[in-house]
TrEMBL record:
GO biological process: transmembrane transport
Subcellular location: Cell membrane; Membrane
Coiled coil regions in record: none
Xref: InterPro entries: MetI-like, MetI-like_sf
Transmembrane parts of this sequence: 28-55, 92-113, 125-148, 229-250
Family stated for the protein in its record: Belongs to the binding-protein-dependent transport system permease family.
Signal peptide extent: none
Protein name: Sugar ABC transporter permease
Annotated SUPFAM superfamilies: MetI-like
Amino acid sequence: MNKVANVHVHKPTKNKGEFIKYFNQHKWLYIMLIPGALYFILFRYIPMGGIIIAFQQYSPFTGIMGSKWVGVTHFKNFFSGADFWMLLKNTLGISILNLMFFFPAPIILSLLLNEIRHDKYKRLIQTFIYIPHFISWVIVASLTYTLFNINDGIVNQIINSITGHTINFLGLPQYFRGLIVGQSIWKETGYGTIIFLAALSGVDTQLYEAAKVDGAGRWRLMWHITLPAIKGTIIIMLILKVGAILNTGYEQIFLMRNSLNVSTSEVFDTYIYYKGITNAQYSYSTASGLFKSVVGLIMVLGSNWLAKRAGESGIY
């Protein structure tokens, strides 16, 4: 009995000592973790307490404790309302197009940059393609208006000189999704290459040399060595992208939305803003946002499960 007692007494002490030793060896990594941890605690986890108002008839004057409990009434109204299917269609339409065209763009660009052998030229190109990421969406929307407006936009001037008529790209609903996806590709593709280029930097160069000896060309090197090397990174990024399938980006959509294209441009993010902030329907908009978050969680868990079933590592 004494031996068993001694084991139970000394084991936590040993584990504690090992943790302190490990912490001292990596203390700067833990210190660097503090700002990110504080950000998520203050702006992500603490605000989750406000989810309760989705089940109340919340009033700012009575507060959370004094507001009437209504259960899932707001969810029923949201799902049975005329707006739900329109929002789902518009949001999924933009997200699927982003998955088809925007998601592969950084991968393709990374593969092309990886083929550049001149380091100075490669760094110069990287610098130029990173710049759009640091331009605000307000500027991007202004540039889009300058290029595509029906009065004096350069694109419409070219079309008018060729065909004799103009196209209202900014007003017609059928062009809205293409403009949004095009903006995303222009703004974020270059910056998105950082992750994939970091993964490519870890590829063993001896693999390329051995393949070249066997007569492999650049295309085979890319297909059989480069792509398999970053496959895990691609799958992780895809899982995260699928998890955000109902997040189309509030600011970008809001700036491009107008009364003419509202049938296509109204998505969950803008709808929640207008219902919650403009119309002061706090509980209803919270229920809408909670639905969006739950769908995102299910998509992440499901895509991660599928990745593991396929033999990949996933995100956890």
